Amino acid sequence: MSQKPEITLGFIGHLNHGKSSTIIRLLLETGKISNDEVEEIRNRVEKEELDFSPLFMLDSLREERERRITIDLSHKEFESDNYQFKIIDMPGHRDFIKNTITGLAQTEVGVITVAADEGIQPQTIEHTYLSKTLDVKQFVVLINKIDLIAYEEDEFERIKEEVETMLNQVGIEQRNIDILPISALQGDNITESSENMEWYEGPTLLDTLNSLNKPIKPVERDARMPIRKTEIRDGETFILGRIETGEITRGDKIVLEPASTRQNQNIGGEVKKIEQHRQEVEEAEPGDHIALKVKGIREEDVEKGDVAGHEDRPPKADNKFEAQIIVLNHPDKLKPGYTAIIHVNNLQTLCTFTEIKETKNPETGKRSEKPEYVEQGQEAIVEIKTKQDIVIEENDDIPQLSRFAIRDGDGIQTIGAGKCLKTLKHSTTEEENNVNRALERSERRDNGILNKICERIPFF
Ligand SMILES: Nc1nc2c(ncn2[C@@H]2O[C@H](COP(=O)(O)OP(=O)(O)OP(=O)(O)O)[C@@H](O)[C@H]2O)c(=O)[nH]1
Ligand SMILES: [Mg+2]
Prior knowledge:
By secondary structure, the protein is an alpha+beta fold. It folds into 3 domains: 6-210, 3-Layer(aba) Sandwich (Rossmann fold); 225-310, Translation factors (Elongation Factor Tu (Ef-tu), domain 3); 317-456, Elongation Factor Tu (Ef-tu), domain 3. Helices cover 23% and strands 31% of the residues. It is built from 10 helices and 22 strands. A 6-stranded mixed sheet has the order 2-3-1-4-5-6, with helices on both faces. The model is unreliable at 446-460 (pLDDT under 50). Bound molecules: guanosine-5'-triphosphate and magnesium ion (MG).
């Protein structure tokens, strides 16, 4: 097994700009896809009576092949001298934005792909904004299809400036970001410098990826592990999840929230056993998927979405917070009182927007205070109240646990994504009671839909 540090790359950008093609070219040139595999797929799709395309290595759904677009996420791996990479290929088509958000929630380095012949398009901007909101820390920009602008330096420089302006507008520090000319189709500047662009003296895509900054594991922060499920192993109850921050060592005392608040007693205890890949380990750190046996915890005490942390630095259960969101899809004006489903740290519950404090137009950067509503495409500062207690952290403290997504009541559309800026005190004013009544009404209306949706679309 490779001991190199891991980095998750997420390819984003507008429909058809060449994300899947670039990934395939990278995998072919680094020997991760063999000609045998290509032939196997060729045989298979010819049986389906479709014209073969190397893109089918990633776009494996029948609908993807017929429509020649990416719909679902696919994951691939390859390595460079310094790193082991996980690559996530995301759809550019706006109908599948929820898959893009899911992918971005796992992305450490965003690879923004822009086709040279079309330049920046709506989903280029949308995906870049989303990455910023979902706290993607590093970026690489590819100006792909450089063959279609005849490998012209002047034209490349013009698009590069356009990209720099966009990054500035979104609020991404662009000075240290590599912007590379490539052609995924012709194989220019992917792993080898191209003879077609003698004017270009910068790195290839592989060089750039190999010299990325190593992502810092948030070991210093308070330990947090959102629970995915419980499991009985050899008659013992284990709680399973991924450590997001901090470290958990055998013998540590942990506590679970909102489990403890829900049951009005301390749910937690001493960590008796830690298993990773079914092997017992002494300690675990961020990124590790583990199973914990905790003294005194029974299966019925824990639910998906509970969060484990150390007893002396415990997670807190809250039901009200201030957040920064981006509204991606909303057919109407989103006003206070709007009720939807929030997905946060493996938990889904109903929530209501109680106040809109500020909006920002991402194209102009113009801000409005105390507006009546938020429109699609806008960024906003809002107050959200949840039906049930949740664990959500402030972005400045534990950004990994501050992110969430909002789905509409029917669970069909992702309305937006955001991060918690500040948790607010529980209160029981008249206004709160109204909110609770609204939530109860909408819960009755949803009548079980929530559970179905949540099972169908695992989030984060
Ligand atoms: N000329 C030229 N065509 C390219 C290049 N890269 C990709 N294409 C073509 O552009 C089309 C779209 O490429 P994809 O890789 O599917 O684009 P995508 O960004 O993955 O598309 P979605 O996932 O559906 O958003 C295909 O027909 C590719 O062959 C390139 O460098 N030059
Ligand atoms: Mg694609």
